[in-house]
Amino acid sequence: MINKKETSDKVAREAAKILQDPNASDENKSVAASALAQARGKVKFVAVKGINFDALKSKPRVEPGEPIPEDINTKVIADLLVNGDIKEA
Amino acid sequence: MAVTHGKSSVLLLDGYDLTGMAQQADVMLSIDMHDATVFGSSAHVKAPGLRNGTITSELFFDDTVTTGSWDVLTAKYGSTTPATILFAPQGLTLGNRSLQIYALQALFSSKQVVSDLSKVTFNGEAEEDAVDWGVTLHALSAETVFPFSGTSVDNLAATANGGVGQVHVTAIAGTTKNAVYKIQHSTDNATWVDLVTFSAITTANSVLRTEVAAGTTIRRYLRITITDGGITTSVTGVVAFARR
After folding, report:
1. Cβ of B191 and A49 within 8 Å?
2. Which residues of B touch A72 (CB under 8 A)?
3. Which residues of B touch A61 (CB under 8 A)?
4. How far is A56 from chain B (nearest CA, A)?
5. pTM of the model
6. Which of B149, B182, B190 minimises the CB distance to A55?
7. What is this model's ipTM?
8. Are A16 and A77 in contact (CB under 8 A)?
9. E-assigned strands of B81-118?
10. How far apart are CA B86 and CA B240, in angstroms?
11. What three-state secondary structure class fits A10?
């Protein structure tokens, strides 16, 4: 069954925080990544480090402080959050 | 098994390509072994200690101003700034193994034999981190289109203890020469995060070396990028990175 319920902004932010927390458990990070996936578009992120997104057709480069493109998939967002490469705007 | 030949070796020191002058190079890694044998033992017991690294290379005497073996090595002798050395036994093809040593020049020798060609020898002693094992991320070749993104090198797995990167630029051209090399890493070979950003290079025979702190995760894939911060028409350089 597909859960179409969207996660609130607040929950999305909490999920982002958990993903960035180096002390959070893998289980909590997994749940947080799932919550974030449902909340795409609710929370904006900016780059902490320079990032090239070669998977996108335009292959954009985002400098530190600049917003992350909206069409980056959630798995990549979660990965970048976990590694501290992006943060909430 | 594919065998390789010593003639493929490449030697760079502080942004100078010494390959065309060198006839032999010997990079040695060693670990002190302490004897911990006690009464009752039936064989020696050894305990490893500190690591060390040295390089010895013999080159033909070349008095070309600035770039010849004589000028490059005599300028380094007595310097308290270690030389950044890259030695690639198989050459510098992308992904090839290389040895990096950050060495103080401990010996310079000019040996002349009546029946032989003039040669010089130098010996370098690692300043602190012995020798690092690395791979080539960009061969010693020119790039003329910027921004440039290199082909990735797959380590098959991430590593977790930082590393060290170095770039040697042997030539750069343009009306306002300014090339910025970066090393990027990636988990998926598609999203690339800056790992090392070297200072802008504006002159030929430049070298830069940056250590990535111990404990830093280096992701599975590595590549380089080059951007033009001025009006650079061409830059010839090699980049290598060693995971620790």
Report:
1. no
2. 191
3. 147
4. 9
5. 0.89
6. B190
7. 0.84
8. no
9. 83-88, 97-111
10. 8
11. helix
Give yes or no for a contact between B41 and B47, defined as CB atoms under 8 angstroms apart: no
pLDDT digits (tens, 9 = 90+) for B171-194: 999 999 999 999 999 999 999 999
What are the E-state strand segments in B8-71? 10-13, 16-17, 22-35, 46-60
Q: Cα–Cα distance between B90 and B56 in angstroms, integer?
A: 18
The label of the residue with tokens 């020191």 reads: B13
Distance in angstroms (rounded) separating the CA atoms of residues B59 and B188 = 43
Q: What is the spatial distance between Cα B86 and Cα B101, in angstroms, rounded to a whole number? A: 7
Beta-bridge partners for B25: B57
On whether any CB of chain A is under 8 Å from the CB of B223, the answer is no
Query: Which residues are within 8 A (CB) of A31 and not within 5 positions of it... i.e. 6 or more apart?
Result: A15, A18
Instruction: State the Cα–Cα distance between residues B143 and B17, nearest whole angstrom.
Output: 17
Give the β-pairing of B10-13 and B83-88. antiparallel
Rounded distance, CA B173 to CA B20, Å? 22
Chain A residues touching B225 at Cβ < 8 A: 52
Pairwise CB contact (< 8 Å): A51 & B194: yes
Instruction: Indicate yes or no: CB of A51 within 8 angstroms of CB of B190.
Output: no
User: At B193, which amino acid appears?
Assistant: V
Radius of gyration of chain A (CA): 13
Closest by CA to A80, choosing from B16, B211, B191, B216, is B191
| d(C-alpha A27, C-alpha B121), whole Å | 59
The C-alpha atoms of residue B6 and residue B13 are separated, in whole angstroms, by 18
Instruction: Compute the average pLDDT of residues B123-136.
Output: 92
The segments of chain A whose pLDDT lies below 70 read: 1-9, 40-41
